[in-house]
Write a structure and sequence with these properties.
By secondary structure, the chain is an alpha/beta fold. The chain folds into 6 domains: about 25-130, Alpha-Beta Horseshoe (Leucine-rich repeat, LRR (right-handed beta-alpha superhelix)); about 140-240, Leucine-rich repeat, LRR (right-handed beta-alpha superhelix), CATH 3.80.10; about 245-255 and about 265-375, Ribonuclease Inhibitor (Leucine-rich repeat, LRR (right-handed beta-alpha superhelix)), CATH 3.80.10.10; about 535-580; about 585-680, Phosphorylase Kinase, domain 1 (2-Layer Sandwich); about 685-900, Orthogonal Bundle (Transferase(Phosphotransferase), domain 1), CATH 1.10.510. The chain has a 19-stranded mixed sheet. α16 packs antiparallel against α17 (about 865-880). The longest helix is centred in the middle third of the chain and has 40 residues, at about 540-580. The chain binds 2-acetamido-2-deoxy-beta-D-glucopyranose (8 copies). One 2-acetamido-2-deoxy-beta-D-glucopyranose binds near residues 176, 197 and 200.
Length: about 900
């Protein structure tokens, strides 16, 4: 029966645990005796100057039970005598001062301090570590120049100062390193000329001077002497001039990256032939000219070749079909011409072909079907001819094919969209003809452009069945018939059918918010805003009746399902009633509420109900005898779990402590009902406030709300144990306290209701809720990305000041995601979607938030950032410390990214 908080064990047990820990630790034996080797003292004195906020080095202690060889990051060797050889203190968030005392360890050969926060100049005193062979200080805050005395480190084999703020020239004295195998100075602020001393590094295997934008220099000629060099990484710096002829001597080279510099001239003759072990070759984004490096696949080891964005000319050799391991081939944005080699299309491992913006000719051979790994092809803006082969449709890994602006002709093969992962198809500006085949298999198709061809016949109805189709451009063809009503099912951000021969009535929701020009050039079309307003009748009868039939069938199916669900409950109820008797209240209060279940149940009536009742059950505001108010949510008890596991689930939720999550104060349940008692928040929900006609809220408050909600979700997703999904993020579930601090409610109700009841209520009450991610239609498995999508919708509400679902100027209801995308597409500018009630001084932050909202609501789940990323991105907006928020939310924007 009613109990107070202390029965719910986890509150009261803290002191006991703490007490027992204390007594336990005081009993621990002190094994490191005072005569312990001085090596542990050396470690302790090293530790004494280090700041260790995360207590990563807590095992480093003279009272520790653990032998120092087993301390965090320490490795000892046992011969000739037990002594420390390796210190690996990577990623421990350490800062403070690096104490040279560590060099008293006589056998220390490897010191790794990478990924910490050491903020100082290069610690030259480490050169006193006589046996040190490897020093890694990558990714700290090292500053200052590389001093001449760096050569004191002359006996090192591996030196890694990458990803710091080291500036100035590379001193010539670095040439005194004799034994160096790895030299990494990448991602720093080095400048000036690279000295010609690299020929001395005869043992060098890895040389990395990349991402030093101020390093304006020619590539030293003597690098070519390094015949053991396997990786040469010079990308993203300021290298200019030619690639030295001496490169022919780099006979062990596996990875060459010279991309994004200012290199000019042609390749040394026979460069390709020189590299027998080459795996990756990247010279993209320079100003190189001349022809393709012949023989580059001689060793058959090449997996990635990138020459893009240069001034290369000439044709590609047929010998490229020998590149049996080639996965990525990128020659886009050059002046290449001639027939594109057939063999390239059917390489067994090829995944990426990018050849757009050249003058390639030739056909796409049917043998492309052999390319079992092919994912992405971009050959736009060339002069390819011939038909689109059937073989292309049988490549099941293909997710992007774009070949706009070529001379392709013939019909689209019926299987053109059979790849189950296909996302983007662009055949616009070719000479394709015939009908557009029905498409059903490509359930992930986001963008389809067939504009400016000679297609005839009707727009296939089946396009309306592709759940994530967002961009559809069929303009400039000879299409006839009416626009399928099925397309209204889609969240189309672009729908362009201009200049065809379409007729009949335009489904209004399809085009609301889109410019009339997307319909122009179809004299037979009628509807609001068009030259013809519709007369009754017209050529769309067939489709209407079909759709009606479909609707009727669907409603019957829904009704039948519901009947079955209800029937199921009755059975479950019967069973549970038989077992445990009716109406027995069981309750657990986590706070002293001083109210009995009976009083609580009495208080739950029409008078205390608030709001329109949430999706999963109504909410009542109940006044406790103390005068305090609580919110009580009434849920069905599905009976799908035993009352013990139900209690367990609710306790799991009630234990959540986060300033942006509503507290659960207790619960009562019977076999029929679950009453969840939440803290009461007087300001109501964000959704209600946005919906008010006189809605006004400063941007700073909105941003704070967004950050709070994001933090709450990040906490549920990543930090709380067990990890939880919210599954019903929407603005009406964001409650506001008196200071407008947001608190999320209605979280993780699936755990109380059971997954199947949760899903069926969701499917019945809000089948097309605009907070639901598009993939909910085809994927039953709930994911973090679905929460991220819903959060994105809330963020867009905050940025635009519009409700998630609002009527447009013509009275058509339009979802905010579609509305925002359409507005941005049409006006080519994002500022038109910002809430006009907010002054323009906040515009930059709002645009940033809009950008984040668009990423969150990306159609493809894998394109959405994680909640943790979103929190950081939003915070960096607020702190104004950086306008580079995209860095946070798009950790890996590569060339493979989709435009949505
Ligand atoms: C352990 O270290 C602390 C400070 O680091 C020192 O005060 C104490 O005397 C040391 N104890 C032993 C047993 O060495
Ligand atoms: C380190 O710990 C392992 C097991 O935890 C133990 O076998 C080993 O003897 C310890 N090493 C030293 C040097 O105490
Ligand atoms: C790392 O240390 C800084 C202070 O030096 C602290 O603010 C931050 O929270 C720490 N991060 C982690 C992951 O421990
Ligand atoms: C490094 O230290 C300097 C001086 O104490 C300080 O101004 C700077 O902000 C620090 N840099 C970082 C990244 O912590
Ligand atoms: C240094 O540490 C970084 C970070 O983990 C790592 O990527 C790099 O390979 C290390 N450098 C060497 C030379 O081992
Ligand atoms: C190369 O190393 C030798 C010592 O082996 C040294 O005398 C010479 O100065 C070095 N060259 C450069 C350019 O530092
Ligand atoms: C290349 O050189 C031009 C001037 O010649 C300079 O503006 C540009 O920044 C350089 N690019 C790189 C990547 O260094
Ligand atoms: C498309 O329609 C135009 C105008 O009606 C006509 O001239 C052209 O021949 C048609 N093209 C095809 C491929 O049907």
């Amino acid at each position: 029966m009613a109990t107070f908080s202390c029965k719910s064990n986890y509150y009261c047990s803290y002191p006991i645990i703490i007490l027992s820990l204390l007594s336990f630790s005081s009993l621990l034996p002190i094994t490191s005796s005072s005569s312990s080797s001085s090596e542990s003292d050396i470690l302790l004195s090293f530790k004494s100057t280090i700041d260790d906020p995360s207590h990563s080095l807590s095992s480093w202690s003279n009272t520790s039970a653990t032998h120092y060889c087993n301390w965090t990051g320490v490795t000892c060797s046992s011969s000739p005598s037990l002594s420390i050889t390796t210190l690996d203190l990577q990623s421990l968030n350490l800062s403070g001062e690096l104490n040279p005392s560590i060099c008293q360890l006589p056998h220390l050969s490897s010191l790794n301090l990478a990924d910490n926060r050491f903020n100082q100049s290069i610690p030259l005193h480490f050169s006193e570590c006589e046996s040190l062979l490897s020093l890694n200080l990558s990714n700290n805050f090292l500053w200052g120049t590389i001093p001449d005395q760096i050569s004191q480190f002359g006996s090192l084999e591996k030196l890694d100062f990458s990803r710091n703020h080291i500036e100035g020239r590379i001193p010539e004295s670095i040439g005194l390193f004799q034994d160096l195998q790895v030299l990494n100075l990448g991602s720093n602020l080095l400048s000036g000329n690279v000295p010609g001393v690299f020929g001395n590094f005869t043992q060098l295997i890895v040389l990395d001077l990349s991402e030093n934008p101020f390093l304006v220099s020619e590539i030293p000629n003597d690098i070519g002497k390094l015949d053991k060099l396997e990786q040469l990484l010079l990308h993203g710096s300021g290298f200019l001039g030619g690639i030295p002829d001496s490169f022919l001597g780099l006979s062990s080279l596996k990875v060459l990256d010279l991309s994004q510099n200012n290199l000019t001239g042609e390749f040394p003759k026979n460069l390709g032939l020189a590299f027998e072990k080459l795996e990756s070759f990247d010279v993209s984004a320079n100003k190189l000219s001349g022809s393709f490096p012949n023989g580059i696949c001689r060793g058959k080891t090449l997996t990635s070749l990138s020459l893009h964005t240069n001034y290369f000319t000439g044709s590609l050799p047929e010998s490229i079909s020998q590149c049996l391991n080639l996965e990525r081939f990128q020659v886009q944005n050059n002046g290449f011409s001639g027939d594109f080699p057939d063999g390239l299309w059917s390489l067994p491992k090829i995944r990426l072909i990018r050849a757009e913006n050249n003058r390639f000719s030739g056909e796409i051979p049917d043998s492309v079907s052999i390319a079992a790994q092919l994912e992405q092809v971009q050959i736009d803006n060339n002069i390819f001819t011939g038909v689109i082969p059937k073989g292309l449709g049988s490549v099941n890994t293909l997710y992007r094919f774009s070949a706009s602006n070529n001379h392709l002709s013939g019909e689209l093969p019926p299987n053109f969209c059979d790849s189950p992962v296909m996302s983007i198809i662009n055949f616009s500006r070719n000479s394709l003809s015939g009908k557009i085949p029905e498409v059903r298999k490509c359930r992930k198709l986001v963008s389809l452009s067939l504009a400016d061809n000679s297609f005839v016949g009707e727009i296939p109805d089946s396009l309306g069945e592709l759940p994530v189709l967002t961009y559809l451009d069929l303009s400039d063809n000879n299409l006839t018939g009416s626009i399928p009503l099925e397309l209204q099912n889609l969240k189309l951000a672009l729908f362009n059918v201009s200049f065809n021969h379409l007729s009949g009535k335009v489904p209004p929701s399809l085009i609301s918010g889109l410019p009339a020009s997307y319909l122009q050039g179809n004299p037979g079309l009628c509807g609001p805003g068009l030259p013809n307003s519709c007369l009754d009748g017209g050529p769309m009868h067939k489709r209407v009746s079909l759709t009606k039939l479909a609707c009727a069938l669907i409603s019957i199916a829904v009704a039948a399902t519901l009947a079955m669900v209800v029937f199921g409950f009755v059975i479950i109820h019967r069973r549970s009633k038989e077992k445990s008797g009716v109406g027995v209240w069981r309750s657990v209060f986590f706070y002293p509420l001083r109210i009995s279940e009976q009083d609580l149940v009495m208080a739950i009536n029409d008078k205390t109900a608030v709001g329109s009742g949430g999706t999963f059950g109504g909410v009542h505001i109940v006044s406790l005898p103390s005068g305090e108010l609580v919110a009580v949510k009434k849920l069905a008890n599905s009976g799908s779990q035993t009352s013990k596991s139900l209690k367990g689930e609710i306790k799991t939720l009630a234990k959540i402590r986060h300033k942006n999550i509503v507290k659960i104060l207790g619960f009562c349940c019977t076999d029929e009902l679950v009453l969840l008692i939440y803290e009461y928040l007087p300001k109501g929900s964000l959704g209600d406030i946005i919906g008010r006609p006189n809605f006004q809220m400063p941007w700073s408050v909105r941003l704070r709300i967004a950050i709070g909600v994001a933090q709450a979700l990040a906490y549920l997703h990543n930090d709380y144990s067990p990890h939880l999904l919210h599954r019903s993020v929407k603005s009406t579930n964001v409650l506001l306290d008196a200071d407008f601090e947001p608190k999320l409610t209605d979280f993780a109700l699936d755990r109380i209701l059971g997954d199947s009841l949760f899903q069926s209520i969701l499917a019945f009450e809000s089948p097309s809720s605009c907070y639901l991610a598009p993939e909910c239609k085809y994927s039953k498995k709930a994911t973090e990305q679905m929460d991220v999508y819903s959060f994105g919708v809330v963020l867009l509400e905050l940025v635009t000041g519009r409700k998630a679902e609002a009527a447009d100027s013509e009275g058509e209801s339009i979802e905010i995601v579609t509305w925002v995308r359409r507005k941005i597409n049409i006006t080519n500018g994002a500022d038109h979607v910002l809430d006009p009630r907010i002054s323009s001084s906040s515009e930059e932050e709002m645009l940033g938030a809009l950008e984040i909202g668009l990423h969150c609501t990306s159609v493809m789940p894998e394109k959405r950032p994680s909640m943790a990323h979103i929190v950081r991105a939003l915070q960096s907006l607020g702190s104004r410390s950086s306008s580079r928020y995209l860095e946070f939310i798009l950790p890996s924007v590569g060339e493979d990214s989709l435009p949505v």
